[in-house]
Specification:
Blueprint lengths: L14 H13 L13 E5 L16 H10 L4 E5 L6 E5 L5 E6 L11 E6 L11 E2 L4 E7 L5 E8 L7 H16 L6 E11 L21 E6 L1
Parallel strand pairs: 1-2, 8-9
Antiparallel strand pairs: 2-5, 3-4, 4-5, 6-7, 7-8, 9-10
């Protein structure tokens, strides 16, 4: 998900001026005339960040994750199903990204887990570390200009298999997380909501994509 320029900005009268105003809002610079999209968000169910000791792959699993984020020029990605335990972060040498995660306790089964993959060069601008609520939602607060902030939420919803109590617990936690976001913050919700939403991507253009799993698109969220 890229931030797109608004058609009209109440602060300026020209379209070029609109772009400069919004560019400065998101890049923190006083003036910017480039139409390049300045913050690129993505969401990715990585299935696991655990390494298999029997694999012939020379690099650990986080290395190709960083490489793909770089290839798609992603600034911040919400990661689902990390399957790592507890809470932590790591940076790949030369990879250009730092991965943060929140999972279940060390003695629990290696399932679920959420996180963020953030371009390492942006970390110096981030004043607050990502906060893992539990193994399903995590929040990240990004500073903009003039004291304003953006809150991004990475969420991983239960599949159809868990009982209703588990599902209700997730959505109650997500609701509480949303309610805790400061009122003036811009809000971005990213993640895998494991919802079957049909196959008609033409009708739901911009909401669901063409890619499917077993013939049925799986809903992800990227809402701002």
């Amino acid at each position: 998900m890229d931030y797109r320029w608004p058609k009209r900005c109440p602060f300026l009268t020209s379209q070029a001026g609109n772009r400069a105003r919004w560019a400065s809002l998101f890049c923190g610079r006083k003036f910017c005339t480039s139409a390049r999209k300045l913050f690129r968000f993505a969401t990715w169910n990585v299935r696991t960040l655990l390494d298999n000791e029997d694999t012939d792959r020379p690099a650990r699993r986080t290395a190709p994750i960083s490489a793909e984020l770089c290839r798609y020029d992603v600034d911040t990605a919400a990661l689902s199903e990390a399957r790592l335990t507890d809470e932590g972060s790591l940076s790949e040498a030369g990879g250009g990204y730092t991965l943060f995660w929140k999972g279940l306790p060390h003695d629990a089964r290696r399932i679920h887990g959420v996180g963020f993959g953030i371009r390492s060069s942006l970390l110096a601008q981030i004043t607050e570390s990502p906060v893992g609520i539990n193994e399903r939602p995590m929040t990240l607060r990004l500073p903009l200009i003039k004291g304003s902030f953006m809150t991004a939420i990475s969420a991983y919803a239960p599949t159809l298999v868990p009982d209703e109590t588990t599902k209700d617990s997730f959505y109650s936690c997500l609701r509480a997380t949303l309610q805790a976001v400061p009122r003036n913050d811009r809000l971005v919700i990213l993640g895998n909501f494991n919802a079957r939403v049909g196959t008609n991507h033409n009708v739901w253009s911009g909401v669901i994509g063409k890619n499917t799993a077993l013939g049925m698109p799986i809903a992800t969220a990227s809402v701002c």
